[in-house]
Amino acid sequence: MNLTFALIAFLILASAVLAATRRDLIHSALLLVGNWLGVAFFYLWAGAEFVAFAQALVYVGAISMVVLFAVLLTRRMRTELPLLVATRDRVVSAVLGGAAVFGVLAVAVLRTPLDTNPAKPAGSVSMLSLGQQLMGPQAAAVLIVGVLLTVSLLGAVVLASSDADGKEGAP
Amino acid sequence: MIATLPPAESWLERFPLLVRDWITGHLPESLGWLAVSLLAIVVILAAFGLLFAYLTLAERKILGRIQNRPGPNRTGWFGLLQPFADGIKAVTKEDVVPREADAVLHFLAPVLLVAMSLLGLAVIPFGRHLLAANLEAGVLYFFAAGAATELAVFMAGWASHNKYSLLAAMRALAQLISYELPLLLSVVPVVMLAGSLSTTHIVDAQGGWTFGWIPHWHVLTPWGFAGFVMFMIAALAESNRSPFDLPEAESELIAGHLTEYSGFKYALFFMAEYFGMCGLSAMAVTLFLGGWQAPCAFLEFIPSYVWFTAKLLTLLLGFIWIRATLPRLRMDQLTRLAWKFLVPLTLLNLANAAFWSLSAGWSGPMHWVRWAIALTVVVGPFLLLGRALTAGVAPRTYRYA
Fold this sequence. Notes:
The structure holds two protein chains of two kinds. Chain A is mostly helical. Chain A folds into two domains: about 1-110, NADH-ubiquinone/plastoquinone oxidoreductase chain 6, subunit NuoJ (Four Helix Bundle (Hemerythrin (Met), subunit A)); about 125-155. Chain A has six helices and no strands. In chain A, helix 1 runs antiparallel to helix 2 (about 25-45) and helix 2 runs antiparallel to helix 3 (about 50-75). Chain B is mostly helical. Chain B has one domain (about 50-385). In chain B, about 65% of the residues lie in helices and about 0% in strands. Chain B contains twelve helices and two strands, in the order αααααααββααααα. Chain B has helices at about 10-25, 30-65, 80-90, 105-120, 140-160, 165-195, 200-205, 220-240, 265-290, 305-325, 330-360, 365-390; strands at about 210, 215. In chain B, helix 2 (about 30-65) runs parallel beside helix 10, helix 4 packs antiparallel against helix 5 (about 140-160) and helix 6 packs parallel to helix 11. The longest helix of chain B is centred in the first third of the chain and has 35 residues, at about 30-65. Chain B is globular and about 70 Å long. The interface of A and B includes residues 26, 54 and 64 of A.
């Protein structure tokens, strides 16, 4: 069991490191897909079958396409990115942004009371109860997330459609 | 494969299980589960490999007959050895990789495509006792495995380092993404009515007969019929079959993202296309056509896997017939069909299935009201939307000089 976990963790971490250090953006994007797949494997290993397949369907199937299309449509050609630091401000803001995200996540994880008693396995949650939780007590959260995603999608469309050459109404 | 055996099963029904137990019986207990899994994989690979081989032959023969020519008839009796001759040809051909191509991705793309199109077959119940993996979220697993084929198509187009390949890959992706939505949305009513994502439960939910000869298959309900038809249209598009074979329209677009592929890698793409077609057809049989259930009660003596195979082959022959009948769509027609026609209709069908589920208790004359309302929701929007979208375009008039 622990060997499987080590392999999955290695896959996730190695693909993340490689994705961050590749010079070819497409390679980075594909490695990122490998990373997401690793996370899906982790969910599967942890017994969350539904979440694992949902992760694979949404991330490997859909989000990967969004990333690849974004890369291809915004870059004119296959340019190799220099792995150099542009300015000091950028470094500082990148480090600050990363640290802020990490801080929020760490606090959230540490504050959540998790039952980490290894003697009593949690048991896999049945899909029925998962669905009832999502559609019952957590319905508001699901709706809010849906609205947020729709808003961000509309924003992306607005940003992408405002061409520099001023052509309006092009489909 | 599930080991629980109802005792009243005939030996024909249990025949695959007996063979499996005979093979795994020689092995020690600790290796048993491994042997069972490996056996399932080997059987699926062998059965669908052979089905792929003879499907290509059947397609060429049937297309030939429809076009009033004999089709392949030189290799073996009736051309029965043609698939093997094709296979040897594909293996021995030179494998050309463009110098500028991304060698790793160029190699990985067909491999990933075939692997992913095979993965989905694991959750299809081919018979009462024939199921490789009984997952609680089987339907979700099937579509999650299928979603990765888009990635492989992109890899193929991008790694070829050819602008035509890349453009074709983007075109193929636009098609795959457009039709993924109606495909998934037409499945949701089935999941809703069966109350489960497990393929075994969905097949069980379609068991039983009214008066002993009308099966309770989903396709025989208004929402199920509409869902089945839209699922098959989306499946045609997802597996790049005619009339949606724009991604590799060999006569106009030099085979699209396959331009820079040759030899066995090229054959692998077609293998994946046929596996995908078989997988989606098998899913359609499972979701809408009652899976391995017999159509009438007195026909139950025929083993379940025979019924499944018969339904699967019928759908596959339908795919071939459609290819011989319909002309190819244009790209704008293709995406318009998906977004303006299929997606609204699948959403309406979802509401229709919800109504069907809520009105399950209606009896007596209300039963007929239930059918009337459900049929109206299927037929009405279809006619209205079809009229609105084809206004000014169809029916076409042709003038001959």
